[in-house]
Structure formats: C-alpha cells, structure tokens
Design brief:
This protein is of the alpha/beta class and 236 residues long. It has one domain: Rossmann fold (3-Layer(aba) Sandwich), CATH 3.40.50. Helix content is 40%, strand content 22%. The protein has a seven-stranded mixed beta sheet, with helices on both faces. Strand 4, helix 7 and strand 5 form a beta-alpha-beta unit. Bound molecules: S-adenosylmethionine. S-adenosylmethionine (SAM) binds next to strand 2 and helix 6. S-adenosylmethionine binds next to strand 2 and helix 6.
Length: 236
C-alpha cells in the first residue's frame, strides 16, 4: 500500500516533508479515536483516509496554488475537510474552519492543539450568519467546501465571504456540470462567474472528482446570504 507521501507525489506532484507526513498520521489517529465517541466519518481505513480524505482535499492545491498568507475559509468543514489537509501541506495559509455543529468544532480545536497548527481558527456558526457579520463578510481570498450543499445553495454560503477578485472552490462528484448549469441565476445574483471545472482521478476510485472554481467579480448585494435555512429552502 503506497504511503500518503507516495500518493501525493504520484497523483499531485506534491512533496510532503517527514514532519508533514507525521502530522497527517497524527490527524488520522485523532480522527479514528474521536470517531469511536462521535459520528465524524464513515471512512476509517488507513488507505481510505489517505485517499478519500487527504489526497482528495489536496487536489485543491494542485488546481489552485495559493499564495502564502492567503486567507482561506472552509465552510461546513465537519472533521476538517478539506481545510486541515491544505493547512498541513501549506503552512503559510491563514485558515478559518467554519462549522455549525458544536461537537465537531470541539474535535477541530483538539486537532489544532495537537498538531500545533498556527494561523488556524474555528468558528461555530452557520454560513448564513457568518456571511452577514463583519469579521467574515468579504474577508477571505478563497472559500472552499466539500459535501455541504448543491451548488446554487452553496454559492449563497461561499460568495458573500469572499472579496471581489477572490475565488470559491466547490468539491463535487459527477453532478458538477449539472450543478454549474443550474447555478446561472445564483452566480448572476451573488456576483460570481464560473471560471472552470477541473477533474481529477483518485487512485482506485471510479467516480470523477471535480473542482468547480468560481471567481467573485462583483460585490454580493447586502441581502445575501438570506437568513439561516432560506438558501436551502428556496435556492436562487
Ligand atoms: N466538509 C466535510 C467533509 O467533506 O468531510 C463535512 C461534510 S458533512 C456531509 C457537511 C457539514 O457541513 C456538516 O458538518 C454540517 O454541520 C455542515 N453544514 C451544513 N450546512 C451548514 C451551514 N449552513 N453552515 C455551516 N455548516 C454547515
């Protein structure tokens, strides 16, 4: 079974240092340990964690290399995906992990402390609230999300958080193009423009892995995001 460092080198041309490989191993151990007490992930095997959580998250760095110091927010991060793997692989990122469920935030705090991840903070809030508050609205260079909502809904969570000129990256499976097609009104309303969709193949996994990359080209009107629940109930 290849190691994570071998996977990242082969699939993504990303070299992990021994210290980074060790951080990933400790993160996997924490994930498995806490998963016995709370529902964090259905993926628990070593190789599965390496590929479906870590390698999958790191495709973002391959598609969109971030500058050191970039402010990144991971919306609906759950157990830290894709944000924490990105922060381990690129320590210069300034990362905010946004998650609505308190227990998951407690886990994220434990990972940050154990791995001594500087410039990494958690926010326990819904995206709809964060997008209307001062420290977060239009405050980020990049907003990312995996497995949180269909794209027309997700764009109402992500675009308000990003500065004009910044980008949103949505990790999607085979429905990426359909979801992008369904997002024309959300993009126009919220000030986004579809930049491109990048496709990756992960070792041993049949389904396509797509990154939908959206650029923010205009300010998001003040009424968006709407109140909590509204984007999902009545998508743009
Ligand atoms: N992104 C992680 C991953 O890919 O493993 C977690 C995915 S999990 C299926 C979706 C997560 O998004 C949950 O932890 C949920 O609490 C969070 N979430 C859903 N809607 C949210 C919202 N409006 N604001 C903040 N978090 C949200």
């Amino acid at each position: 079974m290849p190691t994570l460092a071998e996977h990242t080198a082969q699939s993504l041309d990303i070299t992990l240092t021994p210290a980074q490989s060790d951080a990933f191993a400790r993160y996997a151990a924490l994930l498995r340990e806490w998963n016995t007490r709370m529902n964090l992930t259905a993926i628990t095997g070593d190789d599965e964690i390496n590929i479906r959580h870590f390698l999958d998250s790191l495709t973002i760095l391959k598609a969109c290399p971030f500058e050191d110091g970039a402010k990144v927010i991971d919306v609906g991060t759950g157990a830290g995906f894709p944000g924490i793997p990105l922060r381990i692989a690129q320590p210069g990122l300034r990362l905010t992990l946004l998650e609505a469920t308190g227990k998951k935030v407690t886990f994220l705090e434990a990972v940050i402390a154990e791995l001594q991840l500087g410039s990494t903070t958690t926010v326990k809030a819904r995206a709809e609230e964060a997008g209307q508050t001062r420290p977060h609205r239009a405050a980020y260079d990049v907003a990312i999300a995996r497995a949180v909502a269909r794209l027309p809904i997700l764009l109402e969570y992500l675009l308000p958080l990003v500065r004009v000129g910044g980008i949103c990256i949505a990790m999607k499976g085979k429905t990426a193009q359909t979801e992008a097609d369904d997002s024309a009104n959300a993009l126009k309303t919220l000030g986004g423009q579809l930049d491109r969709i990048e496709t990756f193949a992960l070792p041993g996994i049949d389904e396509p892995h797509n990154l939908v990359i959206v650029r923010k080209v205009a300010h998001t009107p003040a009424r968006y995001p709407r109140q909590a629940g509204a984007p999902a109930q009545k998508p743009l």
